[in-house]
Amino acid sequence: MANDEAVKIYEDNQGSIALAKNPEFHKRTNHIDIRYHFVREKVEDGQVVLQYVSTTDMLADIMTKPIPATQFGVLRNKLGIQASMAVESVAG
Length: 92
Fold this sequence. Notes:
Elements: E1 7-11, H1 14-21, H2 37-45, E2 48-52, H3 61-64, H4 69-78
Parallel strand pairs: 1-2
């Protein structure tokens, strides 16, 4: 599979990226459940590309973590979401 067809997974944990990319870690991680080796196999096959992104730029954090208002605003803008100045009420 060509690298441009591979699924990109953005990850802010460099340890997990190293674990998935480096087969030498396999001997030290035999205790990990077999289902977690799925990602490693897909990386080796070139079907998945793991790419590091810093925690401050992780777009998923806006939905999964409590973050400061300033970081929320930055991530919201990166997602292309505009802040509404007025909240419309729905009349019943």
